[in-house]
Amino acid sequence: ATWMGWGDVYPEINKANGGLLYERNTSGDAGTALNVKKGVTGSAKDYPGIVGRMQSGLNTRMLRLAEVYLNYADAVLGNSAATADANALKYFNAVRTRAGLAAKGNITWEDLRHERRVEFCMEGRYWYDLVARAYYKQQEVINSINNQHRETITAFLFSTPYNLSLDPDRDGSRAVNTMTKERFLLPYPQTELVKNPKLDTEKYPPVPYEFTEERITDLFN
What we know:
The chain is about 30% helix and about 10% strand. By secondary structure, the chain is an alpha+beta fold.
């Protein structure tokens, strides 16, 4: 449902000809790389009145129900190592069982990370999950990113259906920057720093705020 691999069949696409069998790319090579299926809805002939040129009934949802469910489970988990909370499991497993996966009896942040990554694949959300995690486990996220194999953009081929191999003719090498804490947040705009110099945290480092009765009394006197 997310990726097209050689041998995959989609009866809902090109219905007039018996469906779509994915087996080669547009250049006509016998071996072909993976292609994205997510978001491919079929043609106007497949769904007259619903699909047209450059438009379909597939909305771009900024927040969909699966994300609400996973956000709830994440909020219940909080900073705990794991949770078996009944409501958190109810909503977390609703996403899994809809996809035909077995329910879990407890969940960790790693379970949530993986579930969000596969559920929202190609939707541009994963970076923001890492940023959110970095508020609490910054070094963990930095280490995770820096330990990824990011030095190449790997090209895959199918020599036969379901036989995945690397493309020897495509190196894919590229320069890779080292992840640092500064990359998680954008700097304040210069115009804002001019208006309020104390936003410059290097010159004016933040200080803990004391929520005491005496402090609150001082503020209102």
